[in-house]
Amino acid sequence: MPSARFPTSSTEPVAPAPPALEVKGLRKSFAGLVAVDDLSFAVGRGEAVALLGPNGAGKTTAMQLALGLLDREAGEARLFGLDPELLAVRRRVGFAPDAPLFPRALTGLQILELHGELLGLTRARAKARAEQVAEQLGFAGPARRPCGGYSRGQSQRLGLAQALLGEPELLLLDEPTAGLDPAGVASLRGLIAELRGRGVAVLLNSHLLSEVERVCDRVLFLKGGRLLCEYSMKEAARRAELRLANAAQAGPRLAGLFPGGELLGDRFRVPVSGDEEMPKLLRRAVEEGAEVIEARFCGAELEEMYLTIVEGRT
Amino acid sequence: MTPLVSWPIARTTAFQRVRSAPIGGIGCACLLLAFGGGALQGGEATSGLTWFWMHLFAAALSAGLVSEEIESGHAQLVLLRPLTRAAWFGGRLLGALLLALALVALVGAAGAVGAQLGRGHAGALLLLSLPFAWVDLCSWLAVLAALSVVVRGLRNVAAVLLAGLVWFAARMIALQAAPQSPLVARVFDAIQPWLHPHDSRGIARALADSRPPDWGPLFWNLLWIFGFWVLGVLLLNRTELARRRT
């Protein structure tokens, strides 16, 4: 006899899990100035999405609206299909604000322990987790000192650490690389990649296009609070670039040989589908008499896209 | 059920505030005064100048108790955790109340040591008065903590002093305007006791003298603590919702 609680019919449709974050028709203005206007997007589980746009484009406001830190004038925001105000939802979300400030008298570890306990960890577990995250973000030493003496980068790391503390399923990072040294940027990049691999959804707001290129699946271009366009990094053509000593002679020959190839000054660029194409390209170029000084991948050219889409440059 | 008080917030608040130099300095002054008072006079450890300095301690403790966290933005980060605004405010207030308890206990100990060294004995009144002194301090702390939701720094203390001055001026003006009317004086006298926490240490004196105590001031002060706790939560809700709109 079929159970009433557990349907056995294989034809019964199973509702898909809602995205980690979904906003529809968001609108917010400050003193008559529209900061976010009719903004809709979603971030799926295990997906990393970046918000790109000039200062004042509404990126930070969009994040704060999604989290319920600001009141929406219109539209709705859902986290895991639920109201962001629900306490149970907040346990699943981590947020690292831009330029966070912490109580000056407390050490980084004490602040992390506090946040850990607020997330429901026992005191001992919160202490252990705080030390683990501080170590992971490379500021175990400064974390033992009061926050009053922190540099911008150290405060930023502490902000990231408190966001990661509860092993969130959705992570919102507002300018996380601001103030970080190159090692910090590199470790953050690795961290985001690792989180994505574990199925964590990441919404990233950054001006560092090279990092966005490397870690994000999709990019949302914003300007004046509106979504201009959405761009999938997977669909972006990856290109190989060869710097040639004899570009004038070899360049036109290579351009005729490789479909989609183009010569820009002394650089020859050609779309490639994977790393394994680079040695073949190099070998062929040398066979054709090209004198190669440098060879590299040049990614999705996000900067060019940004300038074209957001700044309107051609 | 959602807790009314967050214990981690209370503990962190106490730790955070006790590391403040002015609070530590005033606390040390209280202990020295209690020790001296105990050695010279005996009796209550929380009397005279010590009592005044203990109120200064409460004032310093309450300065920016809530507003500092809101202004720095740390409150918003904390409130993104599974924590209600009421539990957060309750935790901040409880942290301050626990520090006041520690001060009262230490003042009692300093007074007892002083009395033992100076006079050879510490009376029962010294210990009996401590819980009532704590409740009195707590009632003022609750008022100042609620005000610290809406004003920064020591402006909460300034607001209380200003309210007292306004009341005093209004009374003087009314009595000057109607010098022959005993009704005006009676009205002011009738209202005045309801405008501030009361001194409940008289209960300790009555108990020490084996007289029946008047428990009214104690209950009145407890009412002030819970009343201003609730007011603080309401003010925080209002402030936070207004911040989200603008």
Notes on the protein architecture:
- The complex is a heterodimer of chains A (314) and B (246).
- Chain A has 314 residues and is of the alpha/beta class.
- In chain A, 33% of the residues lie in helices and 26% in strands.
- Residues 1-7 of chain A have low confidence and may be disordered.
- The mean pLDDT of chain B is 91.
- With 246 residues, chain B is mainly alpha-helical.
- The relative contact order of chain B is 0.14.
Provide the descriptors you would attach to this structure in a database record.
heterodimer; A: 314 residues; alpha/beta; six-stranded mixed β-sheet; four-stranded antiparallel β-sheet; globular; B: 246 residues; mainly alpha; 11 helices
Structural class of chain B: mainly alpha
State the end-to-end distance of chain B: 32 Å
Strand order of the largest sheet of chain A: 5-6-7-3-8-9
What is the percentage of strand-forming residues of chain B? under 5%
Largest interface: A-B, 27 and 27 residues
Short description:
Chain A is 33% helix and 26% strand. Chain A has 314 residues and is an alpha/beta fold.
Q: Strands, helices and their partners?
A:
The complex is a heterodimer of chains A (314) and B (246).
Chain A: E1 21-30, E2 33-43, E3 48-52, H1 59-67, E4 74-79, H2 87-90, E5 93-96, H3 108-118, H4 123-136, H5 152-164, E6 170-174, H6 182-197, E7 201-205, H7 209-215, E8 218-223, E9 226-232, E10 238-244, H8 247-257, E11 262-264, E12 267-272, H9 277-287, E13 292-297, H10 302-309
Parallel strand pairs in A: 3-7, 3-8, 5-6, 6-7
Antiparallel strand pairs in A: 1-2, 1-4, 8-9, 10-12, 10-13, 11-12
Helix pairs in contact in A: 3-4
Chain B: H1 7-18, H2 21-40, H3 48-62, H4 67-72, H5 74-78, H6 85-119, H7 124-147, H8 155-177, H9 182-191, H10 201-208, H11 216-245
Helix pairs in contact in B: 1-6, 2-3, 2-6, 3-6, 3-7, 6-7, 6-11, 7-10, 7-11
